[in-house]
Amino acid sequence: MVKKAQPDAEMLKGTMDMMILRTLVGGDAHGHTIAKIIERTSEDVLEVEQGSLYPALHRLEDRGWVSSHWGASENNRKAKFYRLTAMGRKQLVRETDRWRQMTRAIGLVMGEEAEAEGGL
Amino acid sequence: MSWLRFFRRRKSDAELQLEMDSFIAEEIAENTARGMMPEEARRRARIKMGDPQKARETLWEQNTFSAFDKGWRDLKYSARTLLRTPGFSLIAVTVMALCIGAATSLFTIVRSVLLRPMPFRDPDKLVMVYEHFRSATANQDGFNYNVVAPADYYDWRAQTHGFEDMAVMRRWRFNLSGQSGELPEVVDAQAGSWNLFPLLGVQPAYGRTFTEAEDSSGGDAVMLTWSLFQRRFGGDPTIVGKQIHLDGKPWVVVGVLPAGFTYPDAKIQVWITYRSALAPEILQYHDHHFSRVVARIRPDVSLADAISQVGAVQYRLHMQYLNNPVAEDVAPRSLTDDLARDVKKPLLVLMCAVVCMLLIGCLNVANLLVARSAARQKEVAVRSALGAQRFTLIREQLTESLLICIGGGGAGVALSFATTRWLASAWKDLPSAQSIHVDGTVLAFACGLVFLSAAMAGLLPAVSSTGKQVLAALQSSSRTAGGSRPRTALRKWLLTIEIAVTVVLLVGAGLLLKSFLRLQGTNLGCATDHVLTLSYSLPTNKYDKAEKANAFSEALVERVRALPGVRSVAVGSVLPGEGYGGDDVFTIPEHPPVKPGDDLPDALYRRADPGYFSALQIPLLSGRFFTAQDRTERGNKVIVSSQLARQYFPGENPIGKHLRPPAYGKGDYEIVGVVGDTVWQVGQPIKATMYFPLLGGSSEVGLTLAVRTAGDPLSISIPVQRQIAALDPDLPVSDVLTLEQAIGDSLGNASFSATVVLAFAVLSLVLASVGLYGVLSYLMTLRMTELGIRIALGAQREELLRLMLFDGMKPAVLGLGFGLVAGAAATKAIQSILFETKPLDPAVFVAVATSLLLVATLACLVPAWRASRLNPMQALRAE
Fold first, then answer.
1. Whole-angstrom distance, CA of residue B513 vs CA of residue B516
2. Cβ–Cβ of A52/B55 closer than 8 Å?
C-alpha cells in the first residue's frame, strides 16, 4: 500500500478509505484516476497498490459510501466510475475529524506541539 | 445490501477483472504518451498493477463469510466423500434412521405420558389421595393404594382442612339410548362430586358444570365430553338443556366439557354427579371401596401436613370399624404417576433399550468411520504435513458424521411419525393416547439427538485419525499392519463395547419374552378356546324386579343355546381372566368370631348362572353346581373356589357351611359346591373366589354372556346379538370378543414390550455382526501381504482360517463376557415386570450367549474363509 516512506502498514490501512473518499470530492473518477490523484497529491510518497485499491472501492460501494457506473474514460475507454454519495460525504467528514484528532494527539506526544497546533 | 454481496461474488469478480483491464489500458496509454516503447509500456503497466490474482482473492475473501464458506466447503467435501461410497453411506444412514426414529417415537410417548402437565389449573398442586392398608399381605405386590370408600371421603372432607378442597369420582357405565333412530350404545361414564371441575380448574366449553344441589341421589344432570358431543350430537351446542336417555332414564345435559379434557382417560363419554346414580345407603359405607379422591394442596399447608390430618381421620375410622376392611392410613400420589402407574416401568425399560440401541448405532457408525479414516490416513498425513490445522481436519470428519446423522435423523423423524401413531394405538392402557403426537419439542429433541449422535460417532475416529504421527504415517507403507495397529485396536474396542451393549439388550429381551410366554401359557383353569364373550347391562328401571332380570337371562340362554353351532352357554358377572370385578369380606358363622383388629376373610365376588361352570369347563371338586331352583328366596347359596376352601376351611369340608357377607344383609349363604380355581387376571396370583347364583335376585347390572361354539366363535356373534335385540331392542351390547382376545388384551402390554425390546435386540445383533464382519474384512486387507507370504511359505489354509477366526472372535468373546456381567446387573431393574421368570434365568443367558457366538462366528467366517483362500501371487503383487 505504502512503499517509499514505509510507515506502519496497520496505521495507514484505515486511511485508504478516507483518501479514496477525499479524492472523489473533486468529481467522479475511475480506479486509475483515483490512484493517480493520490500519488500526485502525496508527491509520490504514497504509491497505491491495485491489490488493495479495488477491494477497497468495492467495500466502499457495498457500504453505500460510493456508487458506481460504467462510462467512457478521458481516452474514450470503457471504465468504471465511482461517485461519492451523501452517506459517503458524511463518512468523509467523520473520518477527517478523527484523523485530525489522531494526528494532533500523536503530534502532542511526539513533542511537536507548536507545529501540530500551528497545523490546525 | 451487505449480505447480498455473498451471492454476487462471481459478478463482482468479473467486474473487477474488467476494471483492472481498463486500468492496464489507461496506464499503457499514459506510458506510451510518456514516450515508452509499446513493449516497455505494457511491462511497466503490469509492474504498477501488481498481481491481479491477489486483488481478486482479496475481494473474494472480502465478499465471503468465512465460517459459512468453510462450513459449506466441508459440507460439499463430505457429501462427495459419502457419495463416493454409497453402500457405506446407505448402511450408516439407515442405522442412524432406525436408532433416531425409535428414540424419537419413544420420547414422544414418554413426554406425553410422564412429562407433560395435565390441562388443569396449577396441575402440580393436585394430588390423588388413596386409602392405604398397612399389613404386609396388602403390600406384597408393591405399595398399596386402595380406592376410597364414599363415607371415608365425606368424613375426610368434613373433618380436615389441610387441603383447599377434595373431590371424589368413580367409574360407571350406561346404556345410551338412540333418540332419532341411532342404535343404542354402551358409554363409559365417570361420576364426580360437584366440586370436581372447579377443583381441577376446568371450564366447560358450553353450558356449566354441576351444582351442589344436582349432586344428590336421583340427580339427573349430565355433562358430555367433547368426543361424544361431536360424534353423537354433531357438535350442536343447543344440546345443552335438552334430555338424553341413559339406562332408559331421562338426564338433562347441563354442559359440554372442552376438547382437551380426556381425564381420567379418553374412553369416558359422559359425566354425572357422584351421588346421582348411587343408592343413598351406599354413601354410608366405610368398607365399600370404589372411588378415587383428588385434592388440591393449599399454598400455606404442606402436603405432608394435609395428608397426616386425613390419615388421623382415617385411623379413627379404622378403629371404629375394627372388623371391617377400613384402611388404617392414607397415601398421596401425583396425578401423572396415578395415570401412568401401569406403563411407567415398561416405558422406562423401553427408553433404556432405545438408549442402548442408539449407543450401538453410534458405535457402529463410529466403527465404519474409523475404517474409512484408516484408509485415508495417508491423505490426512499429507495434508497436515502441508500445514492443515488439526482442528480443520477434525471438523471435516465431524461434518461427515453430521451428514450421516442428519440424513438418518430426517429419515428417522419421518419414520417416527408413522411408528408413534402405531405405538400409541398398539399400547393398551396408555393414558392420554390421543394427545400423543410429534410436535416442536419432539423435533427439537430429534435435532439434539442428531447432533449428539454425530458428535459421538464422529469425534472418536476424527481425533484418533488426526494424531501427530504424520511422519510415521507417511513412512509406513499403506498395507503393512504396523502403522494402523492402534487404529485396529480402537476398532476392536468399539466393537467389544458394541457387543457388550447388544448382549445386555438381548438378555433383557430374552427375559421379557420368556416372561411373556409364561403369561401366555398360563392355565386359566377353564376353557378358553371357542368361547365368544359379550357384555350387556340390564337397566335397573326397566328390569326393576329380580324376576324380570331372571326371565331375560333364562330366555337369552334358551334362545342362544338353540342356535346352530352352539355347544353351551354361560351368563356371569365376570369371566375368568377378565379382571378384578369386585371383592367382599365375609364371616363364617360356624367359626369362632374374628379377633378385633384382624382382617375379615375376603374373596372375589362373582355371579354365575346354572350353566356357568359346565359351559366354561370349570371342574366341580365336591358338592354341586347351581340349578334353576337356586333363585330368588331360595338363592342364598354360594359356590366357593378351591382356594377359598383351602384358605378359610383348612382340614374341613366346607359343603353345608355358611358364608355371611355383611354387605348383602341377606344373612347366611350355604356353601353347596367347591369348584376349581380360575385365574382372575393373567400374571396375578390366584385369589379366593365366591360365586353367588345369578338367579338369586341380582343387583348386578353388568353381565357377560359366554358362548362355547363348535366352530369359529366370532361367526356366531351376529346371530347372538340378533337374539338379544329380539328380546330387548333397546339393549346395547359391548366387548364382543373371543375369550382368548379378551385375555390377550390384558397381555397386550407384556407382549408389546417383549416384541419391541426383542426387535431392538435383533437389530442390535445385526448391527454388531455387520461391525464384526467389517472389522475382520478390513483386518484381512491389512494383512494381505503377510497372509500371502505365509501361504507362499507353505502355511496350511486351515491354520490361516483358524488364525483369522480367532482374531475376529476375540472382541466378540470379550464383549460377550462384559455384556453378560452388565446384563446380570441390569436385569435387577426389570425384575418387577417379569412374571415367573428369574432375572438370572440360566436358559435365557445360555440362549443369548449361544446365539451371539453363532452370529459372531458366521460374521467372522466369511472374511476368514476368504483370507484362507487367498492366491499368494495376487496377494503379493497387490502391494
1. 5
2. yes
